[in-house]
Amino acid sequence: MAAWQPHARAVRAPARMHDWLVTPGSLTARLVASSEQFRVRRVHQRGAPCLADEAAAIGLARPQRVWEREVLLMCDGKPAVFGHTVVPLSATASDWPLFSALGERSLGSTLFYDPLVRRGQLEFARLGPEHPLARRVRALTGANEPIYYARRCVYRRRQGLLLVTEVFLPAVLGLETAATMKNTT
Fold this sequence. Notes:
This protein is an alpha+beta fold. The protein has helices at residues 15-21, 27-33, 108-111, 132-141, 175-184; strands spanning 38-49, 65-75, 78-88, 117-119, 123-127, 148-157, 160-168. It has one domain: Chorismate lyase-like (Chorismate lyase, 3-Layer(aba) Sandwich).
């Protein structure tokens, strides 16, 4: 289980990673602007048990089955961010009308342009190698970092709650340099 913190400084991320963690607005928009080629690679979208530290965040008394969506946000052919989203099974289509039809589209591209969506406070964590999300990242990408930095946020639409967790991968640190080089050539 991760120790989620209300302030990014609490996770002691290096300066460049801290900058990514505190990205205001849409992380997807920043990734698009920082790379020449951006795409969403959907890993899966299915019913699954939520993690122990997710249940209370989405209004569940205990961990139980939820709708789970996992994606890799790819920048210039490299995975830059692992996205993990959970929604209680009790959520209705009117709460999250586009969730089931996202496919390879970014969830962020819908959340930030829907006037009914309210964003909660960001929380931040350091995920050790045994955290379930770190194990999933390792299985998907082969990366084997001792620590992954992550942030998460609850979004509310009508009566529905949705929790988005973003795990930042090493490739994200090379994006600012790539964008800077692209703009100077």
